[in-house]
Amino acid sequence: MKISVFGLGYVGCVSAVCLAARGHEVVGVDVQQTKVDLINGGTSTVVEELIGELTSSVVRSGALRATTDVDEAARSTDVCMVCVGTPSAPNGSLSTAFLTRVAEQIGSAIAASSRRHTIVFRSTMLPGTCDRILIPILEKHSGRQAGVDFGVAINPEYLREGSSVRDFDDPPKTVIGQLDEESGNVLEELYDGLPGDRFRVPLQVAEMTKYVDNAYHALKVGFANEIGAICQSLAVDSAEVMNIFLADRKLNVSPAYLRPGFAFGGSCLPKDLRGLVYAARQADVSVPILENILPSNDEHIRRAFEIVTEFNHKRIGLFGLAFKEGTDDLREVHWLSWRSVFSARVTSFVSTTRTYRCPGCSERTEIS
């Protein structure tokens, strides 16, 4: 397959070199002549394990070359892979300046082309960026219709610095966000033979996946460090604690609890979180992640309350009052705390009458 890779930074260079190594004919494109000269001289633009030897090999074989000529690169290839940067501003907003500029250039380049090009975005972008910004630009400058005259796909990368070549050849998964089935088929063919699960999804789902992954990775690092700080303050071996934590593949290192839904309740999670945060405060240890879990949980309750009340119904029925199925435990059950709130908004409160027992004690509560 003939592929042009736009942007010869970290992701672009690794993608171009690895695709060329897999037998594709690749043209790297960059506005910086220095990067173009490095590639054409058989030298990688990034310092990375294995990339130097691989770059030299694919350039020497003729599988990879580089240019600053966007028009020539786009017109002579079937796939235009965009790997330009999307830096963030101090307030966290995403800059799409490089993306929009490349989209304009590619759109103009393919305007008079008779072949069906597929534009693949590997740059990290917020959901909706492709639909609302990039596709309209491509259509405007090409005078052609996306999904009909040219394809569009999102293909987030999962390349870790230091092991990117190995990650390219052995990805944890391959995500193909497709505007249409033919666009997805192009990427299926491009990555044929690579291991790992493959997901063909709408564009916005593919855009979101990279953010979810990175946010979770950051959360894991922060969580482990806060636990380590608490353990140190209590003279507890944090490595041994985390080894035991990681040994649980049923609940801890697993899909358990990682399904979006309602807030947590019950007797253990709220109580133990409060206790752990209290211990940290007693030791003068700052744990902003841990101490914001309960406030975050309360936000889910608030959002659910707003969803219910926005319908402005007079009668509200609640089916199931325990904090989860299979138990009659009412401790830390948030629905019960809503009754006083609802009382000011509704004329009646409908639920099933049932007697509940508090586990571990003789207290019984009748709810009606």
List the helices and strands and how they pair.
Elements: E1 2-6, H1 10-21, E2 25-29, H2 33-40, H3 51-61, E3 64-67, H4 70-75, E4 79-82, H5 97-110, E5 118-121, H6 129-142, E6 151-154, H7 164-169, E7 173-178, H8 181-190, E8 197-201, H9 203-233, H10 238-247, H11 268-282, H12 288-291, H13 293-309, E9 315-318, H14 334-343, E10 348-351, E11 354-357, E12 364-367
Parallel strand pairs: 1-2, 1-4, 2-3, 4-5, 5-6, 7-8, 9-10
Antiparallel strand pairs: 6-7, 11-12
Helix pairs in contact: 1-3, 5-6
Shape: globular
Give the beta-strand count. Answer: 12
Q: Unreliable stretches, pLDDT < 50, 5 or more residues?
A: 344-368
Order of helices and strands: EHEHHEHEHEHEHEHEHHHHHEHEEE
Question: What is the CATH homology-level superfamily of the largest domain?
Answer: NAD(P)-binding Rossmann-like Domain
Beta-strand residue fraction: 5-15%
Give the integer mean of the pLDDT values: 88
Radius of gyration: 27 Å
What's the CATH architecture of the largest domain?
3-Layer(aba) Sandwich
Q: Which class of secondary structure composition applies to the elements? A: alpha/beta
> Spatial order of the strands in the main sheet?
3-2-1-4-5-6-7-8
Largest sheet: 8 strands, mixed
Distance between the amino and carboxyl termini: 68 Å
Number of domains: 2
> Into which percent range does the helicity of residues fall?
40-55%
CATH topology of the largest domain: Rossmann fold
Q: Which CATH C-level class of the largest domain is it?
A: Alpha Beta
**Contiguous helical run count:** 14
